[in-house]
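README: folding subset

This subset contains proteins for which both the sequence and a predicted structure token string are available. Records are stored as plain text. Below is the entry for Lysozyme inhibitor LprI N-terminal domain-containing protein (162 residues), shown exactly as it appears on disk.
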Amino acid sequence: MGYRKVHLCLLGLGMLFLGYAGTVQATDRVSVRETAPLSPAVISRTGFSWWRDFARERRYFRQEALHCVMGQHERACWAGLSAQLRRRAWEGWTPQREICIGVQRDAYRYWHDLAKYAALSGRARISDQNRKVLRPIDRRLQRVERDLRSMADVGRCPENGP
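--- output ---
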């Protein structure tokens, strides 16, 4: 009993510290981006690059999800896919001055929400309740794609961020 309490306490402290560290990093990144304006050429080039990479990664993860649906080890496959998506979300949240903060934030939320959905799919069959989770994910996907295309075409950040 004592070991379990100590283990839970350490786990709680670790989660608290990691959550705090992530918040500090995110605010530091925002302040760095706000100090220097981006040139239209840089925004356009970065928007096109991100849009191309985003589409390629979506195709890859879609194929992985189909593999999970068809496979015999469905639960383990969905758990692995969820871990990959979470890793992808964090990799996309690195400090990059060339990308608009609003677009980067939406892309991070899209990958993170998709990871949550993959974890949910691995636990149970997809029901109507689970499908309601897909609506905001789909809207965020459309917004990210629209904003990346806008960055590539116009060369300026969309209205949802600097």
